[in-house]
Write a structure and sequence with these properties.
This protein has 291 residues and is mainly β. The chain has two domains: 164 residues, no CATH class; 76 residues, no CATH class. Helix content is 8%, strand content 48%. It is built from three helices and 24 strands. The longest helix has 12 residues.
């Protein structure tokens, strides 16, 4: 696994698909979203309208998500946010599945149009598009920021804490078997003295001041890798401190200034992975049964 720093200007970040038109089986679909509207503090909704051959197909108010992949690569499956998660519609058969996800962040289809990932604030769910069933669910209340994604190997990648480092779980969606690769934490990679910020992280206060874009973030975002939806490459970002911790007299909290830094993960034949142990394999089976 090669990890390299990436400048934001060199990343093709995919914007939210506010107005998209595509064709499937000689039918033309037009999907339009309104601008997000804040209905209460930090909770946003959008008005969604879908036309099929210029006739109204769906019109509804939906939750605003961070990123959205509207259709599968083969365009057979349409993914639409709801108020509580995501609805996936098979445009071939008109079958659909609606999956609830607390504070849905976004979704992603695999390269073969066989599976769809749904990421919420606390969990990731893998849907088999043939059976329209949730076949795997990963939930970690302590690691909600690092959502799952499809990697360049078409496996589901999930970053999780692993002692003093992190590791990536590579889940094969066909067999649900797992291998792992080790990953440095953001503080390790960017050579940051983590001891200076441990008390700030544990406080989980709304006290990180974004230098470039403005606004604030919770301190729990420090030393985490976050999913970035891109059209090319496997990209993550981290909220990186740029100043020492100091007391903010206006807001009466310890705080620091931060900015986003980006990395790209490149997988090769030299990947250092270890096959999952038998006891872990059993644990994966138990997790699937508890879905």
């Amino acid at each position: 696994m090669v990890v390299q720093k990436k400048a934001k200007r060199d990343i093709q970040i995919e914007l939210f698909p506010e107005n998209v038109q595509f064709e499937y089986n000689n039918d033309v679909y037009q999907v339009s979203f309104s601008e997000p509207n804040e209905i209460r503090m930090a909770v946003y909704v959008r008005e969604l309208e879908v036309l099929k051959n210029n006739d109204l197909f769906k019109s509804v108010t939906v939750s605003d998500c961070s990123y959205l992949e509207l259709h599968s690569p083969n365009k057979q499956f349409l993914a639409l946010p709801t108020r509580n998660g995501l609805e996936i519609i098979d445009l071939e058969s008109d079958n659909s599945i609606e999956v609830n996800s607390f504070f849905m962040l976004g979704n992603q289809f695999d390269l073969k149009s066989e599976f769809c990932l749904i990421n919420g604030q606390y969990d990731s769910q893998l849907i088999d598009l043939k059976s329209f069933r949730v076949i795997f669910r990963h939930k970690n209340l302590d690691n909600y920021i690092s959502q799952a994604r499809f990697g360049s190997d078409n496996k589901v990648w999930t970053i999780e804490n692993w002692g003093q480092k992190m590791r990536i779980e590579h889940l094969d969606p066909q067999s649900l078997k797992t291998i792992y690769s080790v990953l440095e934490t953001p503080f390790e990679f960017f050579k940051i003295d983590g001891a200076k910020y441990q008390n700030l992280i544990r406080s989980n206060k709304h006290c990180l001041w974004l230098m470039q874009s403005g606004g604030m973030r919770f301190s729990s975002y420090l030393n985490k890798w976050e999913f970035v939806k891109t059209s090319k490459g496997i990209i993550y970002r981290s909220t990186v401190p740029k100043t020492e911790v100091k007391y903010n007299t206006n807001y009466k909290v310890d705080s620091c200034e931060v900015d986003f830094e980006y990395i790209e993960l490149i997988i090769g034949q030299e990947i250092q992975s270890e096959m999952v142990l038998e006891k872990e394999s059993l644990w994966e089976k138990l997790k699937r049964l508890l879905n």
